[in-house]
Structure formats: structure tokens, C-alpha cells
Amino acid sequence: MQERLILISNDDGISAKGLDSLIRIAQPYGKIVVVAPSTTQSGKSHSVSLTTPIRYEIRHSSKNLEKYVLFGTPVDCVKGALTKILPRKPDLMLSGINHGSNSAISVVYSGTMGAAIEASFYGIPSIGLSIVTHDLDADFETIEKTAPALIEKVLKQGLPDQVSLNVNYPVTTPEEFKGFKICSQTKSYWYEDFEETVDIHGNKSYFQHGHLVNMEPENPNCDENALAENYAAIVPVRADFTEYKMIDKLKKWNL
Amino acid sequence: MQERLILISNDDGISAKGLDSLIRIAQPYGKIVVVAPSTTQSGKSHSVSLTTPIRYEIRHSSKNLEKYVLFGTPVDCVKGALTKILPRKPDLMLSGINHGSNSAISVVYSGTMGAAIEASFYGIPSIGLSIVTHDLDADFETIEKTAPALIEKVLKQGLPDQVSLNVNYPVTTPEEFKGFKICSQTKSYWYEDFEETVDIHGNKSYFQHGHLVNMEPENPNCDENALAENYAAIVPVRADFTEYKMIDKLKKWNL
Fold first, then answer.
1. For A203, which of B43, B55, B75 is closest by C-beta distance?
2. DSSP character for A4?
3. Are residues B51 and A44, on separate chains, in Cβ contact within 8 Å?
4. Per-residue pLDDT tens for B24-47?
5. Nearest CA in chain B to A80
6. Cβ <8 Å between A84 and B203
């Protein structure tokens, strides 16, 4: 039987602690090829490098693990892996573990989920994993103990074509952890603030930072609220933006 | 009555011909504030600048038109406009006219639609407009003649909270143009190729280019196929990635 091939990427870059944790989680399940960005790509969403060329370098090669750094976005990493680096289509794609939440509307901005969603386009079962803290030294013990059960289920059951899983973990000890909850994406948006900074020439510029506005705080079945209850939230994700229930209304506009 | 305020952005940058065309289309409907990226942001999707500060400069100011250039992504432009530049929430947001198709799965990669979708998060009726050619000198005559009817409908009827319209135009003369068709997003993916280029030090790098694989070529109601029939395709868009029909299946996994 052919050895299982697993592609791993992330958006925090090749040096992130969350990437090392994900490699440890995945190693029992097959040969791992990491193709990760050289630097942080947080907030890069589904972006692709179209006007600049993409370069990659091998950084590690042993029997069951190869690591490549790619100078581009997380989606570039998946495209580069599938087009140039991997010997064949992988059996599984894992993205993360992201340092920071990708629940609710954050999925739209997420490079981690950009990579997972890109892999799903080619019929590769894919999972994006995140923890809801930006702490670079986050504790991944709960994830390392519980994610294998999820990975085994995905390997056994598969996922529908073009569907991936967006999995967000709360910050908890294994004892406090309530388990997985299947959820919908929380209706929400980011309220933005722009913090002014002035350079040595007196020019103003702005760092954006904000907070999530949860538009359905009473819904127990959406990811943001499941996380608040110490569940890991699993949202099945498909990048079909169509608002189907609006189609008939628009037809009545008689354009 | 307060004058109508219209925000315009794009992903081809402040100098694009498509932006000038959209300003001409919108000018009868109110005061226009353009906040557009300094350079091309094609393929930037919903990305935001998180690790670099955002700067903007005014470029033009007259009674009914202000133009700002912003050094960031299309979504940064919308966030900057709403947070720092505009005196109040605009009544309408227009994005484009993009030089290149944003139909089918391209909506996921599109900076043009990133900006339109971002505006919809704040309850601003928004429309992204594209023409299916990358020609920088594209002919926008058909769009300039027909888009006003669509804009007037949106101004009159509004759009639901967090819904925007993704409008793609074929390359046609006004005579060949068949009118608008309300569509779903074509199930599809991009087949990628990586074209090798070698720098003066002998290092290889790659430009990605590909073609869209249409997974539902017989569906008359999806955007890609409507465009092939010389219709302008209108897809109502909501950035809810949840694959609802998968939720019950996942619950049966008993994780």
C-alpha cells in the first residue's frame, strides 16, 4: 500500500511554534511535506502572488519529513506544493496551528484558512486549525491530545469535494476542554480602529486593530459562542459566496 | 435632504481606466469619494495589512469628487475610508471596474470583491463590477450605458445586511449585449501552471498562471455560462463560508 502523503502549511511562517506542533500531531499518519511561508502572512486571506515570481527552498529532508520555505502567501504555498514540489496529490492537507482565532468572520481574512480552502478546491481533504490566542508561545497540549481523533475521522470518512474544516480551539487545559462542537460561522464583523503613528518626517500612518462584533450572541450553535463555552468549534466550509435566497428577489427587480 | 455619499475603490489602483469609468457612471448619483490603492492589488483577495502601517494621501478635491490614494490593499482602502477619511457611512459603495473576470471561483481571489464584501459587512449596499478582459485599455461603453439602471435599483431597493453584488460583464458591443442575468457562483477551480524564470544568479522562480476549470458547464444559471452567452452575470454574495448541509453529517461522526 502506498504511504500516505500529508501536506502542511500555515500563515505564521516556517518558524512558528504552531507549525511544529502540527507536524508532531500529523507524523503518525504518513509522510509529511511542509511548504510554509518565509514570514508571517497573517491576514493575507486567499491572496495569490500574480505580479511577483514565487521562489522556494528546501530546508529539511529526512525519511518522513521534508520542509520547504516558500516566499509567498499561504495560497501560493499550496499552489506551489501541488504544481512543483509534491510527487502526487496529497491525501490530506493541514493548515496551522494558527496563533490567533479564525472563527466567525475572521475566516474571510485568514491566510491559514486560505491555504486549507485552496487545497479543498482540488478534492484534497483539508483542515485548518487555530487557537484563539496570538501568544507566540501558546500551549498546544489540548490540541495535540485531541486533534488526532479528528484527523483519523477525516482520513476514514473523507470530506466532500471543495469542503474543508475550520477548527478553532479555546485556550484551555485538557481538563477544562469540553470537546468538539459542530457549528456555523458566527454572523459578525470587525469594528476597526486606526492607531496613528508618525514617522521621522512627520508623516502620519496607521496600524489597524479592532474587535469582533458578534451579531448573534444568543446562538449556541455558532463557532464564536461554542469557543466561549470551552468547546473546539468545527465549521464545515465551502467557498461558495452565493446568497441563494436572494436570487429570486433579484429576479423580481426585472433588470 | 442630505447629499448622497458614494465610496469607490478598486484593486487595479488609482490610475486604472476602469476606475475613471466607474467615477463617470456614479457621478450623477451623489458626492463621490475615491479611496483606491496606489498600485495593482489583483489577487489580493480579502487581505488586510496587519504588520505594516497604512498611509494615505489626497490627490484631488473638487465639489463632487475627492480622490485619495491609500498604500495598502483594497480591503484596507474600505477600512481606511470608513475609519479615517469619510465624514459618515456612505450610502453606496462601488468597486471596480476591474480589468479581468471575477466570476466563478475567482471571486475568492479578487481584491475588487474583497473591497465590496468588506463594505457590505457594515450594512453599506455595495456592488463589485468587472469586465472579463485584462486589457488595460478595455472598452467600457456597454457598462457605462447599462450599469446606471442597476445602481438605481440598488439605491431604491437596498440590499440585505452583509450582502453585496458581484457583477461581471462580457466583452461585447452594446448591440450584442443580452442584458443582466441573476446567477449563482460557478462551481470551479483554477488549474495552475508555474512558468519558470531564472535570475542572473541562476536561481529559479515561478510566475503562476492558469485557467479556470468549469465544473458545471451545462448549468445555464451560473455566472460563467451566462457570460459566455453575452449576459452580464449578477451573483448576490454573502461571505458565509458555512457548508450548512454538512453540519448534520459531521454531528454523526460523534467526535
1. B55
2. P
3. no
4. 999 999 999 999 999 999 999 999
5. B194
6. no
What is the sign, positive or negative, of the torsion defined by CA atoms of A214, A220, A224, A228? positive
* B interface test, pick of A47, A49, A156, A194 with most B CB neighbours within 10 Å: A47
Give the count of beta carbons closer than 10 Å to the beta carbon of residue B103: 28
Whether residue A192 is predicted with pLDDT greater than 90 in this model: the reply is: no
- Kindly tell me if the per-residue pLDDT of B192 is higher than 90: no
How many percent of chain B have pLDDT more than 70? 100
Alpha-carbon torsion, ordered B63, B65, B71, B75, to 10 deg: 130
> What would the pLDDT profile of A208-249 be if each residue is shown by its tens digit?
989 999 999 999 999 999 999 999 999 999 999 999 999 999
- pLDDT digit string, tens, across residues B143-190: 999 999 999 999 999 999 999 999 999 999 999 999 999 999 999 999
Q: Closest to A48 (Cβ–Cβ): which among B107, B109, B114?
A: B109
Q: Is B190 among the domain residues?
A: no
C-alpha cell of B92?
453606496
- Domain hosting A118: range is 5-185+218-251
Among the partner-chain residues A166, A189, A239, the one whose CB lies closest to the CB of B108 is: A239
Number of domains forming the structure of chain A: 1
Indicate left, alpha or beta for B179 from its phi (over 0: left) and psi (-120 to 50: alpha). Answer: left
The answer to whether the Cβ–Cβ distance between B182 and A250 falls below 8 Å is yes
| Residue B140 belongs to some domain of the structure | yes
Pairing of strands B65-71, A65-71: unpaired
* CB–CB contact B45 A48 (8 Å): yes
Q: Write down the pTM of the prediction.
A: 0.97
List, as ranges, residues 158-177 from B with C-beta within 8 Å of A: 160, 162-163, 166
Please report which helix (H) or strand (E) contains residue B8, including its range.
strand B5-9
* Side chain identity at residue B26, one-letter code: A
Q: Is B220 on the interface with A (CB under 8 A)?
A: no
Q: Which chain A residues have a beta carbon less than 8 Å from that of B40?
A: 51
Q: Is residue B193 included in any domain, yes or no?
A: no
Return the residue matching grid coordinates 475521522. Answer: A153
Residue A208 lies in a domain: no
Whether the CB of B191 is below 8 Å from some CB of chain A: the reply is no
Q: Please indicate if any CB of chain A lies within 8 Å of the CB of B58.
A: no
Closest among B24, B117, B23 to B77, alpha carbons compared = B117
**CATH label of the domain that carries residue A80:** 3.40.1210.10
Instruction: Write the ipTM.
Output: 0.95
